[in-house]
Amino acid sequence: MTERSPAPGGLTLVEALVNTLDMESGADALDTPEGRERLGITAEETDRARTLRESLRATLLAHAGHPPHRDVTPLGVLLAEAPLLVTVDPADGSAALAPADGRSLHARLAAAVAEGLVAGTWTRLKACAAADCHWAYYDRSPAGRGRWCSMQVCGARAKMRRYRAKEV
Fold this sequence. Notes:
Layout: H1 11-18, H2 33-39, H3 46-63, H4 75-79, E1 84-88, E2 95-99, H5 105-119, E3 125-127, E4 136-138, H6 151-167
Antiparallel strand pairs: 1-2, 3-4
C-alpha cells in the first residue's frame, strides 16, 4: 500500500503485523500459512494476533492524532501479558529489554515497542488517516506530521474529496 521505507529496528514487526490486513479489499494475511509464518505464529495464535493487531492500529491512529477505528482492548493491557527481561551486554554495559520467550508474538512486540520508546521512534509509527486504509507507516517527515501512508494514493484521494466537496 505504501512506497515508504520500513520502520526502523524492531518496529518493522509492529508495522508488519498491522499491515497484514488490507482494509480496502478485506484480504487478511493471517488467514494464510505464509502470512502467519512471516510473523512466526501458528494457526491457533491467529485470534490473539488479530486482537493485538487492531489494538496496535488504534494506537498508531492515536500517534497520528486520529480516533480509534473501533473499540479495542487497550494495548497496555495486551502487552502486560508479555514477559520481558533486561539484558546487559558485558562488553559495553548497554542494556535492552528482550522477550523472555523469544517465540511469543506479544513479547516480541512488547520488546519492539520498548526499543522504539527508548530510541524515540515509537510515536513516529502511525496509521494512515484514510478510513479505508489505516495502513501502518513510519513518518520520516521533518515535522512528524505525516497523515497518509502514500501521498500518491491516500493523500491524493483525500485532497480530491475535499476539492469536490468545495464544488458542490
